[in-house]
Predict the 3D structure of the following.
Amino acid sequence: EYSHIQATRWNKNVLTYSIGRYTRDLPRSTVDSLVESAFSVWARASGLTFIRSHNRNADIMVEFVSNEHGDLYPFDGPRGTLAHAFGPGLGVGGDTHFDDDEHWTAGKTGYNLLVVAAHEFGHALGLKHSRNPHSLMYPTYKSSHPVNLLSREDVANINALYRRAGSRPNF
Ligand SMILES: CC(C)C[C@H](CS(C)(=N)=N)C(=O)N[C@H]1Cc2cn(c3ccccc23)CCCCCCNC1=O
Ligand SMILES: [Ca+2]
Ligand SMILES: [Zn+2]
Ligand SMILES: [Zn+2]
């Protein structure tokens, strides 16, 4: 079990991710593109770069698992908790798990993978929950979010954590 060295933010601008176990609810290519889209939501707002890798020592491991799955946070069957993500750090840091007892979809029925993944990756980057129901980081699932998912508050919070990483100084 990793001794999870919890950090408040990543100390690098380029992060790798790898997808392990998939869900049977969606074609793999659909999962790949929804995960990529969820990362790009945060990339646009933070200046961070996310690169997909195919080995298990990526910064962020993305997996669909159910019930007991090897960390201290077993899932709970259908509904209830939909997913969780560890905050920035070595080893298990950033790792994101989706409860495969949920019905994952790319649309309005079931739980929309893009919406949930974008919320989880917010946690994986170091964001906490927001009390603003319009925020993507609100603690409960909402199927309807604006097209680009992030509220002004989400953008402000990710900017506070990663001041537009990689941007040029304005002189
Ligand atoms: C915001 C999500 C994408 C991620 C969060 C998990 S996390 C760690 N990443 N913040 C989540 O799963 N929240 C629960 C919160 C929740 C709502 N209820 C629950 C009943 C039992 C347990 C949890 C819940 C009431 C019934 C509805 C259950 C289905 C929807 N579940 C939720 O919205
Ligand atoms: Ca569940
Ligand atoms: Zn887990
Ligand atoms: Zn959350």
About this structure: The chain has a mean pLDDT of 93. The pocket of zinc ion (ligand 4) is lined by residues 119, 123, 129, 139 (CB under 6 Å). The beta strands are 14-19, 49-52, 60-65, 83-85, 96-99, 104-105, 111-112. Residues 49 and 141 are 26 Å apart (CA to CA).
